[in-house]
Specification:
binds fe (ii) ion; 209 residues; 8 helices; mainly alpha; 0% strand
């Protein structure tokens, strides 16, 4: 069936034209051969689609107004990544900086966990733990706030990733809210996002306290 016919019929195009299309009408009716093909095709599709979806989500944040910082959350991520790049951090850390708040608008209270789950299969355990816990570590840098507990991070003092998380937040998070700071365009980071999301770090992703 040609592409025009596929669209006209209401079917979505397949990732590859020769992939199996399961057309039994309901998942309960799919057979063993269907599931074997679906599992393989899903894994192949996700590998190549994930960078596009992540970048389009990040790009969409560019239209968001700021809630009060000089720059919005997209430019905050860009500034964070720019600073990490200028510091000579590795490519993974630059990408982590870029995307550390990508879930902020979707679920502010869980935005660290969102980034950790999204990037977890591709990054080190140190960066994954940092992403989960960075919102609490950020509170340390808010001495003018009337109600937050600046020392909440102390519950993790001595944890193997405490110092890295404190360093990341100090250098690449709390300081990345100024229009006067350098902000490279997203195009500077696109290839890095593709490379980092294109690999799997199977040593990472273990649940951490
Ligand atoms: Fe954050
Ligand atoms: Fe942030």
């Amino acid at each position: 069936m040609g592409e025009g016919n596929v669209v006209a019929s209401g079917l979505s195009p397949l990732g590859e034209p020769d992939w199996l299309r399961a057309s039994a009408g309901a998942m309960s009716a799919f057979g063993r051969a269907d599931w074997i093909a679906l599992d393989r095709q899903r894994d192949a599709l996700l590998v190549r689609e994930k960078p596009r979806v992540v970048l389009e989500l990040f790009e969409s944040l560019g239209a968001e107004p700021s809630f009060g910082y000089e720059i919005n959350m997209q430019r905050h991520g860009l500034q964070s990544a720019t600073c990490a790049l200028r510091d000579g951090r590795d490519e993974e850390t630059v990408v982590v900086a870029l995307l550390h708040d990508i879930g902020f608008t979707l679920a502010r209270d869980m935005h660290g966990a969102i980034a950790a789950m999204m990037l977890g299969p591709h990054i080190s355990e140190a960066n994954r733990w940092m992403l989960v816990h960075h919102p609490v570590f950020l509170d340390y840098h808010t001495p003018g706030h009337p109600s937050v507990d600046r020392d909440a991070r102390e519950r993790w003092r001595g944890h193997p990733h405490f110092e890295w998380t404190a360093t990341f937040v100090d250098r690449y998070d709390q300081a990345a809210v100024s229009a006067a700071g350098e902000i490279l365009p997203l195009d500077a980071f696109r290839p890095m996002v593709g490379r980092v999301l294109g690999r799997r770090n199977d040593a990472a992703g273990e649940a951490a306290a």
